Amino acid sequence: MLSREGMRRELEREWAVIERAEKKLVDEKKEVVAEWVDVEGAQREYDTKRDEFEKDVSKQFRFLPEDTMIVFNVGGQMFRSTVKVWARDRFSILAQLCTKSPKLRPDKDGSFFFDRDFWVFRLILAFLQENHLPDTVEELRELYCEATFYRLGMRWGDEEDDLLPQRVESEPDSNGVRQIVEWKVNEAGDKVKITKKVKKVTEVERISKRALERKKWAKFGDALDDGDGSNVTYMSYEEVTLEDPNADQILPGEKKEEENIFAGVKNSSIVVCRHCGMVGDHWT
């Protein structure tokens, strides 16, 4: 069984180990924050380049109005839909034929002819309209091969509407308040915009001069491995008994716990004669 001194030393060693682990976690947190700042910077750069790219694309691809009907004759089967559907992948052949200056000339009936399998093309149209994919592996393979012919990219089926806008954080104003705008999807499946205002407040903590002096003392034992900013606190587990010198004193308005049965008797005698019952000294 450990003595009090041995128990105290054991607890001090465990406390020092915990503080070293805590310091390591703080350092790792700083590294993660630094990496996150780099990621946000790269994200802002990506957004800027993407905006520039979108502007260039809008200049080069002048699409017809979204509600314009375009007809494709695939293997003798007519497929009719709007520009909004055909141009979901703006860099595909189908989208290029929905521009104001298509590379192919339409037939006399106004349709564009493709000598391809119409049975597989119906799968492409179904996905462009309703995001519906076939259930069998064979049809999925045929869909992939046919999508490659029409230059439909690997991300041709992605829904841009399902992507949430990026988190936007403004610079602090004159009062130190910055605005953060975020988006999320609620339980009903709707996009919700969340705007928060955050203000950074610096609190000043005052400590005594002696506490500052103690922090400058040379460390020893297991505390030698701790950094300069660590704060090692030791606790004493010895039993300390305190006695109240005013325990018998009765404060104003406080009742006595036990009444003194002799409080009413001052200088009088409490002797009672067993013969006549008279109180006090007397002759019988």
Folded structure, characterized:
The strands form two sheets. Strands 2-1-3 form a three-stranded mixed beta sheet. With 284 residues, it is an alpha+beta fold. Helix content is 35%, strand content 12%. Among the domains are: 1-60; 69-150, Potassium Channel Kv1.1, Chain A (2-Layer Sandwich); 164-210, no CATH class. Keywords: Initiation factor, Protein biosynthesis. One of its GO terms (molecular function) is translation initiation factor activity. InterPro entries: eIF3g_N, SKP1/BTB/POZ_sf, T1-type_BTB. It comes from Phytophthora palmivora.
Q: Which shape, going by the Cα principal axes?
A: elongated
**What percentage of amino acids are in beta strands?**
5-15%
| Adjacency order of strands in the biggest sheet | 2-1-3
**Name of the CATH homologous superfamily of the domain at 69-150:** Potassium Channel Kv1.1, Chain A
Q: Provide the helix percentage.
A: 25-40%
Taking pLDDT < 50 over at least 5 consecutive residues as the criterion, the unreliable ranges are: 156-161
Instruction: Count every beta strand, where a strand is a DSSP E run of 2 or more residues.
Output: 6
Major beta-sheet overview: 3 strands, mixed
Cα-atom Rg, whole angstroms? 44 Å
SSE string, helices as H and strands as E = HEEHHEHHEEEH
What structural class results from the helix and strand content? alpha+beta
CATH A-level architecture of the domain at 69-150: 2-Layer Sandwich
Domain Eukaryotic translation initiation factor 3 subunit G N-terminal: 171-284
GO molecular function: translation initiation factor activity
Pfam families: BTB_2 (PF02214), eIF3g (PF12353)
Keywords: Initiation factor, Protein biosynthesis
